[in-house]
Amino acid sequence: MARSQGFTLSLVIPAYNEAENIPLLLGRLAEGMASFDDVEIVVVDDGSSDDTRDALRRSLNAHPELRFVSLSRNFGHQIALRAGMEQTTGDCVICMDADLQHPPELIGDMVRQWQAGADIVNCIREDQKSLSLFKRLTSRWFYKLLSSISGLQLMPGSSDFRLLDRNVVDILNRLPEADLFYRGIIPTLGFRVVAIDYQPGARIHGKSKYTLRKMTKLALNGVVSTSVRPLRLATYFAFLTALASAAFLAHVLYVYFVSRTGVPGWASTLGVTLIIGTMQLLVLGMIGEYLGQVLKETRHRPPYYIAETGGAPPRTGAQGDR
Ligand code: UDP
Ligand code: MG
Questions:
Q1: CB-side exposure of 139: number of CA atoms within 13 Å?
Q2: Are 12 and 169 in contact (CB under 8 A)?
Q3: Which of 104, 118, 163, 308 is the most exposed place for a label (fewest CB within 10 A)?
Q4: Could you tell me if residue 131 is inside a domain?
Q5: CB-based neighbours (< 5 A) of ligand 2, an ion
Q6: What is the model's pTM?
């Protein structure tokens, strides 16, 4: 693959109500992209209600490398990313925000890492004063929680500012599931991964489009789409309850048979409650386990991803041919 020269670089930029940022962004990108032979910029207008779409239309003449897609309504950042990635043709694809918080100066470094062999270049945000305390705290908690629930190593400061090799983009575009959480899925793919630190800039115009509601939705989606561990909680609770119930039941039996101090009916009521409670949790856990399996299967994620093939093509009738 032509990673040294003659490659096409694609940029994917989701934009939701970013009309004021569009001309600035395209200007900054034009400066930064001068050193690349072939660049395409795909801006996804995620159902904006301001004049983002007009701003994009107006920019088309001055920026022949620009293409934009306007979604029919606001679908959210992750889906906008997917819509954008599906439009790209480049050998490597960089996803970044429209508000210039992701410095375009980093693009050169990212491409160099890709040329040196990296398939995924993640830009990790350094905890920065330019971000609000609220954003810093929620972001840190989010990654801690998600890492501990899902068992994935998610770096605090992860964002959707990253470069992906064409092969990885094709794999992501082929994933059939509708609710994607790229930060959770990409670490499960494998491939050669490199991280670069960066200092986020301040948002140039407008407010953050990630409202608390959108962040909560992203967090919940992130947990559910990366892990079935929460479903297993019922099973763990069942074990804990079983232990506690056994101990308590021993006490109830002791009171009933040996010390004979209990109120009539107390032992049987407690005994039945403990046994049934434990059994219910166990059954819930079992249902959770099967539900988890069903969930995994319905996503139709491929069981493996191929990084490279070499040599003669597979003979007809080989498994891979089907
Ligand atoms: N965005 C989007 N759809 C949404 C919300 C946000 O396309 O529903 C875009 C937004 O225009 C920006 C990027 O996603 O380019 C990141 O959003 P934002 O900068 O508001 O988030 P923050 O930087 O505050 O986390
Ligand atoms: Mg931002």
A1: 18
A2: no
A3: 308
A4: yes
A5: 97, 99, 101
A6: 0.82
pLDDT of 63 higher than 70? yes
Q: How many CB atoms lie within 10 A of CB 205?
A: 14
Q: Is 14 in the pocket of ligand 1 (CB under 6 A)?
A: yes
Atom of ligand 1 nearest to the CA of 74: 8
For 159-219, the DSSP string reads -S-EEEEHHHHHHHHH---SS--HHHHHHHH-S-EEEEEE------SS--S--HHHHHHHH
CA of 298 to the centre of ligand 1 (A): 29
Predicted confidence band of residue 95 (pLDDT cuts 50, 70, 90): very high
Residue 313 lies in a domain: no
Cα–ligand 2 centroid distance for 288 (angstroms): 37
Q: How far apart are CA 39 and CA 65, in angstroms?
A: 6
Residues 198 and 280 in one domain: no
CB count in 10 Å sphere of residue 12: 26
DSSP, res 36: -
CATH number at residue 33: 3.90.550.10
Q: Is 161 in the pocket of ligand 1 (CB under 6 A)?
A: no
Domain that holds residue 178: 8-226
User: Which of 190, 205, 226 is where one domain is finished?
Assistant: 226
Within 10 angstroms of residue 197's Cβ, the number of other Cβ atoms is 12
**Dist. CA 76–CA 47, nearest whole Å:** 9
pLDDT tens per residue, range 2-27: 688 789 999 999 999 999 999 999 99
* Residue 240 and residue 97 in one domain: no
Q: Looking at the structure, do residues 41 and 128 belong to the same domain, yes or no?
A: yes
